[in-house]
């Protein structure tokens, strides 16, 4: 991207909002990041009763400022993208909408406290700005390792759930309602708490037989934690090895996004979008 | 399996029940899977007192429908297999029987709540339908890794149990009955809870010396969790490597089961059962 | 070991007690194993008040029988070894003594309940009989891996303890006595409970700042559990690799023990003890 | 370092304090190590009310002795280094100052209990004396592995925190104040407690839906613990491999410190400091 000339304001705005290679784009990202973190802090502080009572007005005004800022950003995103429908129903499009709307609804309905917490979804927007995939750099063999082991870990977790249901039912039969295992779902919940070595202790076996079975469950949980760990570390070792062998030629990617379909991670010398074939705006 | 012709109804039924390569076989499996999951849901809902009081009749009728369905399936399985005795006393044969019988017994004896939970064993039947081994596909080097490390993990868990008994006895001597360590088995139970990092907190050391020993137990538990994990991941790495080297020629297996001995996982071009030598019914 | 002839009774007894290659030796080991497990069961049952009250006499008599059996065995071991002093002060010699003596002391002093639990040390004797090293077979690269990583794991655990002391002191300053962090040692104990992800919950931070620091401690603990696991699995992978490369020529070892110094694991064709040079009794 | 001659007392003192290759230097380190451990013991004992009441004077006097010893050492360190300012504002310089000053302040202000605990920072000084890096010997590929995986583990922990905030907010909406989830920060704290499998149990979900979400959180936590472990063990395996291939020529380092800039780990045959180029005092 050598020179920027003959661009309409839409194109310029698109570059500022969606990319981080120009100074304006970087500034926009930093401001947005601060706004998101500030808004999350606000959501947290609001939930603390004693704090909300003291500084209610301050919190309310700050929340309105941030909501309006996000609304402007949301509209700007829709205008500058060529296919707005696609953006609106994309993952981040929905997150952007859901994290902006609660304050407006509170104006109409009033006191909808539950909805307010939806604003915490704003945190997911952080991932877009940070463009984490880029920061991770060459470490995408971690993601490959996770993808490669996804099927096996799913089967493993599925087996864990079945074991939890069967052992939970057995514990329900042994301990019964008088010891806190009031029904099978609760008993299964206890079993997952124990198998994963969390161990809250809100429910704990009281009968000798129950404690014996619980010991087996714990030793089992202790033994099987080795399985996902083993899979991931083995797959990851393989990934790094393959990586070395294929001499992973480090292609440099930039943060530019296609004005048509918003696809990212284009190569520095790309002339057209790899996703939709639209001309990229290299000045 | 090219054409299916000249088959008796028994042979056809056998194919539907035991195999999943024909449309009827697949349909049967899906219906059975839904029935099993529905019946597990019933068992769970029944155990919730408030729910059972409200919808007792509905639950009872649904349970009878499922029990009758399972009974028919059980009889059909016996009829279509050439050696019914072998099936009846096989692992799945016993599971099928135990998960069907409780409802009939409740008719005779009445109010045998404890037995009712036996029906949760139905969940084990899921494994048969899903034929998980197949779904796991080429990932059977996970199973090989687990088999290879079985002996070592057993020895390891055996050592953990011995450590738990000795440390449990020491904690019983230090803390005594007044701090919840009422007897040695309970003390050993506490020790397993702690070693496996579950930590319910229903029993916790109160004396300074007891807390010091507990700290040692915990750091020990934290250190030794590395052992099974290390074994599995190393074995798994080895398995994947051997796999690559021997160019694991992917033999395609089908879900067909021998009409004589119910052995599964025959090769696609197999003419005779690899287990009992009986002719397979390739049309 | 082809023929056994011209042996004194001492030599024969030594072979029965210390080795497991002859039928008599195997029988002796099995009987001893049962006696040990029975005695551990006795110690456990005795500690359960309700059980002890009912069957006190039965437990007492059984305990005397086992104590006398172990006494005879202890004496036999001393007689048949050429250097009894060495045996008496060896690890297993002390265990054998400590696990036999409590019952005799109870005769003299009476009601020394605490000492009685010493008998749980008998469990350590199981390791001798099982000769676990042999059962582990070729898996002694696990032991090598543990030895290779011992130094690093020690340094790691040492660092964990220092972190626990410093963080414990900080938590003591933040939470104070009113929230259960009554003094620094107790606070350090809490910190170890948390770092190792055990989490009893008998002490838990109550102040927001305390909970924030606790969160950091937990995430830290969650992150550093990776270190020992990573070390062991990497070392173990290395061991298995070296193993393959050096073509580990499977030397067959027998369970014979030297009559002079009790060294074990002699090669099948060994003529002299590898430890003291004493002639081995190959008939 | 062959012969030591023609040195001023400053140079000699520098050698004793900062190095461990001469007998005097070793003696100094051992005395300092004992003083540090004794002072930590004092801080702990002081915090135990019952102990402090009984032996207050003894503890006070011991603390003064150690404080004066540390003060002398601190001044000696400043005098013998050529650039004292650099030392004073170095990591260990600040630790040395902070761990010495509290007793003097208590003289002026009196009863500043909170400050007293600062003395626990003395423990950090242990790392300087032990010069752990050296003890770890060739194992610095563990440190390399940790460095190599630092970025990935940071991203991972960052993602864990974001997941905790979002799930914490959801749990706050579901469980609400009546079940202990009084505000979002507390709810996030609970979520971290659960995700890291610590599970105190001071807060635990009570509603069925909350328990269901909690189960998901736990299984998630159980699954993702595999990630940092996998990374570290894979990186460590790589480090050890690279190590072997590059034939890591074992350079022998000594504990000598530059009199000018205090840089350590000079090679045995080094004539000048690798950091500031100052002449090293090889007699």
Quick recap:
4 copies of one chain form a homotetramer. Helix content of chain A is 66%, strand content 0%.
Secondary structure layout:
Four copies of one chain form a homotetramer.
Chain A: H1 9-18, H2 23-47, H3 49-54, H4 56-80, H5 84-88, H6 91-98, H7 101-108, H8 113-116, H9 125-130, H10 132-135, H11 140-175, H12 184-195, H13 208-224, H14 226-245
Helix pairs in contact in A: 1-2, 1-4, 2-4, 11-12, 11-13, 11-14
Protein name (chains A, B, C, D): Ion transporter
Pfam families (chains A, B, C, D): Ion_trans
Domain Ion transport (chains A, B, C, D): 26-242
Task: Please provide a written account of the structure.
The structure is a homotetramer of 283-residue chains. With 283 residues, chain A is an all-alpha fold. Chain A folds into two domains: 2-130, Four Helix Bundle (Hemerythrin (Met), subunit A) (Up-down Bundle), CATH 1.20.120; 136-246, Helix Hairpins (Orthogonal Bundle), CATH 1.10.287. Helix content of chain A is 66%, strand content 0%. The first copy, chain A, contains 14 helices and no strands. The first copy, chain A, has helices at residues 9-18, 23-47, 49-54, 56-80, 84-88, 91-98, 101-108, 113-116, 125-130, 132-135, 140-175, 184-195, 208-224, 226-245. In chain A, helix 1 crosses helix 2 and helix 1 (9-18) packs across helix 4. The radius of gyration of chain A is 26 Å and the shape is flat. The model of chain A is unreliable at 1-6 and 247-252 (pLDDT under 50). Chains in contact: A-B, A-C, A-D, B-C, B-D, C-D. Chains C and D meet through helix 10, helix 11, helix 12 and helix 13 of C and helix 2, helix 11, helix 12 and helix 14 of D.
């Amino acid at each position: 991207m050598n020179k920027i000339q003959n661009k309409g304001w839409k194109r310029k705005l698109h570059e500022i909002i969606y990319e981080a290679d120009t100074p304006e784009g970087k500034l926009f990202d930093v401001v947005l990041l601060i706004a998101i973190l500030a808004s999350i802090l606000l959501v947290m502080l609001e939930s603390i009763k004693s704090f909300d009572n003291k500084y209610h007005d301050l919190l309310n005004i700050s929340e309105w400022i941030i909501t309006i800022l996000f609304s402007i950003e949301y509209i700007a995103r829709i205008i500058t993208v060529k296919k707005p429908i696609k953006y609106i129903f994309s993952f981040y499009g929905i997150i952007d909408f859901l994290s902006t709307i609660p304050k407006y609804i509170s104006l109409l309905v009033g006191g909808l406290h539950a909805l307010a917490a939806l604003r915490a979804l704003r945190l997911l927007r952080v991932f877009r700005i940070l463009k984490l995939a880029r920061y991770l750099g060459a470490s995408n063999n971690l993601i490959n390792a996770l993808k490669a082991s996804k099927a096996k870990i799913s089967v493993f977790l599925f087996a864990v759930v079945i074991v939890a249901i069967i052992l939970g039912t057995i514990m329900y039969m042994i301990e019964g309602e008088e010891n806190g295992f009031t029904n099978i779902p609760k008993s299964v919940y206890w079993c997952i708490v124990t198998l994963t070595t969390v161990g809250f202790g809100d429910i704990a076996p009281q009968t000798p037989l129950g404690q014996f079975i619980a010991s087996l469950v714990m030793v089992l949980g202790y033994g099987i934690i080795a399985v996902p760990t083993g899979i991931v570390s083995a797959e990851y070792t393989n990934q790094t090895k393959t990586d070395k062998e294929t001499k992973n030629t480090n292609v440099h990617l930039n943060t530019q996004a296609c004005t048509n379909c918003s696809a990212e991670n284009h190569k520095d010398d790309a002339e057209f979008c790899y996703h939709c074939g639209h001309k990229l705006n290299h000045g």
